[in-house]
Amino acid sequence: MWLVIGGGVTVLVLDSIVRAKFEGAKWALPAHVYGRALDLYQGQSLTVARLRWELEQLGYRSVANVVAPGQYRVAGAQVELYTRPFLFWDGEEIGHQLTLTFANGRISSLQGKTQPLDVVRLEPMYIGGIYPDHQEDRVLVALKDMPAHLVNGLLAVEDRNFHDHFGISFKGIARAMVSNIMAGETVQGGSTITQQLVKNFYLNQNRNLLRKGIEAIMAVLLEIHYSKEEILETYLNEVYLGQAGKRAIHGFGLASRHYFRQPVGELDVHQAALLIGMVKGASFYDPWRNPERAKTRRNLVIDVMAERGVISVEQAVAAKAKELGVSSSPGTTSNRYPAYLQLVREQLRKEYQDKDLKSAGLRIFTHFDPQVQNQVEKSVASVVDRLEKGYKIQSGALEAASVVLRIGTADVLALVGGRNPTYAGFNRAVDARRQVGSTIKPAVYLAALERPQSYTLSTLIDDSPYRYRAPNGTIWEPQNYDRRSEGVVPLYRALGSSLNQATARLGMNLGLPAVTSVMRRLGYEGPLQELPSMLLGTTNMSPMEVAGMYHTIAADGFYTPLRTISAVYTADNRPLRRYPFETEQRFSPQVMYLLQYGLQVVMKEGTGHSAYNKLPANVAVAGKTGTTNDQRDSWFAGFSGEYVGVVWIGRDDNGKTPLTGATGALQVWSDIMAGMETASLTARPPQGVTSHWVETATGLLSSEGCAGTRYLPYIDGSEPKQTSSCYRGESGDVMLDWIRNKLGL
Prior knowledge:
The chain is of the alpha+beta class and 745 residues long. It contains 23 helices and 33 strands. Strand 20 and strand 21 (475-476) form a beta hairpin. The longest helix is centred in the first third of the chain and has 22 residues, at 2-23.
């Protein structure tokens, strides 16, 4: 009597457990983070090589005949492509079969099967996740989206009577024993798929008679409450299929991406058979570590699939003749871009609870650009290595960080936190705050140019030795890098040549509060000490903070908060948050145009001129080098017509280096920009700015062709009023214009 009551209570308890987990949130799903989607359209700047690289990163396969999603073929200047469907934040994109034609580094045409297409989106690259504490990972796939040969092959090997039994199958156990004896190894399992699901989903791995009894009861209860399709779909997403570092690979959806870099729906027979075979022992049959063992197991599975009629004999012969087909490296490496993902996590944790980030399966779309990231990583690694060898620096002594933004939107496209970009350690791009040196000088000159009646690009600045006595009696006496004074120079040259004495004198004349105000308006929110030395860059900043300031300069005076995330959606694609573009005008476009001119002088004639060893001469860029005391920090911050880039090089122990901003960080920046084939800065001035010929040695208005003149932009009304002896004016009559000038006409 008591035994019956106890048994009944046990069944009720087990029934409650079975239903609670199966009907609730079955898994703690990691947040999945995606990069930007690549839009394909006529006129887009893109080469065949860059498109091919992105397709390979996404797991597309190069084939002779493009007939299915995930395939492409390159034929000279044409690319045939079958895109994959993808559920974007703004709706589902269907797969498109199309042909792209390229010319002069651009897409010249986009042709669908029957008509031209306006725009097609490639699915975004998966760049990492925020994982549950137990480090399980999976990509949920509906049963209807699994290929038939995978599902039917799994049933043939693991549970051929799945649709006939009620959770346990004595006939299946007997059949498996016979098949395994005849094959000489385990070809078929004795447990049903329902039992395997119970074992993986509800129970631990202890093996004893009581546990087997509980497993059988729970398997029957599952079959009572849920359909065969629900049970099979759950099993397909639950089964353990390998390890990626500390992360456990669960389910065929993630396993397909891990081993083949393909969605599970694209798996061929030989690929599906390999994964089916790994159910028996994912580590034992790991195709990278044990390829021959894995291939033998795969072929046995193929034979069973043919025997059960899942595939034809001809298909089986063809499948067994193929290699394993796994990718050269795992397609789901644990957070390939840790520095960028740190930014994403920091932003999300301000708005979401940690448990939701680790278990709710959020879909996070970012502005990350894998093409730009790839170039930044290559440039940092190759150039820093070359610098160490060229300057005979101990290998590995130098570290580096870099940030690249899109101008206008302030999207963070790429981020490198160290020479090893895959190392999830100290993120120097975000957390390393070092003295910025002369990269701060544009703030001083901007403060001056905001006073157009007092300062213009041609205003003469004194670069003689400067000495300042502080109220406490200390003396500040900055010197130029080469220890030489240049005398009186025009403002644009003082900036272009990064003259410390001229900058210090200018900044002190303006007043430290004026310069700190400009720094704040540019976007810097960190600590500031109003000391004279700040004018030459003693403030500690991170590369991200420097990038934010330079973005305001590059964006014509419009401040925009740096953006990493574009949208956050739930696992079932319900919108949680969009991150719209925000901007605020903090400086006039006219003043910024003058500063940009000065920063172009830096690149063409000043400390940044070596950039043109790599950049085409017709590509106008702007920027500023930075070097700190004893050359402990090498900085460069600059921009083209499309991108803002910041690079820092130094030692983690803050030791001395032989590098200046020009010989170190600028070399990395130039390599990045040259590799991205970036657009030139616009030469068109904003309304209210007019250029005039000026005699640079005197600052007097002059004329084209006169000795020592330069064509400089001025805010209307701020141009020089006094003229040189060579000034011809509009009339071209030197004497007449001289008389008019003297009479004030």
